[in-house]
Write a structure and sequence with these properties.
This protein is α/β, with parallel strands linked by helices and about 160 residues long. It contains three helices and nine strands. It has a single domain, classed as Holliday junction resolvase RusA (60s Ribosomal Protein L30, Chain: A, 2-Layer Sandwich), CATH 3.30.1330.
């Protein structure tokens, strides 16, 4: 594969991992479950916090698409790199904060990395690539993907690839 083009940028803020959609049965006016073809009608709703974060990331991605003159989503393979920078807890001692800044302490309880990645993938769909199924690789931006930082953000690398 050949890298046709790559862009780098960051998204300020504390990452919000993808939350599972909540499912519930559809009720009629009398509070009874609506049944269609012998099965209850079910709806899903993505939590508002997840939707808001993905909308924010999509807005940043659209700005970057304009800056980098990306007129339409890539319809070939794509590689993504992401580095999630978490805020250092204010309650920590100065020595522990220093160790966190130097990468000696990694965030292991703040979020599930795979859910954070999924949130980014979904936010960029239709902007950088037509469908997130086009993502063929994750590429490292640095040796660590989840780190502590004084500036919470997600560092992003998008590589547009060609099979030839």
């Amino acid at each position: 594969m050949v890298i046709l083009r790559e862009i780098r940028f960051y998204i300020s803020g504390v990452a919000v991992p993808k939350s599972r959609a909540r499912t519930f049965p559809v009720l009629d006016d009398q509070g009874r479950v609506v049944v269609v073809n012998g099965k209850p009608l079910i709806k899903s709703r993505t939590p508002a916090k997840t939707l808001a974060w993905e909308s924010y990331m999509a807005a940043i991605a659209r700005q970057q698409a304009v800056i980098h003159k990306i007129k339409e989503p890539h319809d070939g393979p794509v590689a993504l790199g992401m580095k999630f920078c978490h805020p250092i807890p204010k309650s920590w001692s100065e020595s522990k904060k220093k160790r966190a800044r130097n990468g000696l302490i990694s965030p292991t309880s703040e979020m599930d990395l795979s859910n954070a990645i999924k949130s980014v993938e979904d936010a960029f769909e239709g902007i950088f690539y037509k469908n997130d199924s086009l993502i063929v690789a994750y590429v490292p931006i640095s040796p660590l993907w989840k780190v502590y930082s004084d500036q919470p953000r997600i560092d992003i690398l998008v590589q547009f690839l060609s099979l030839t």
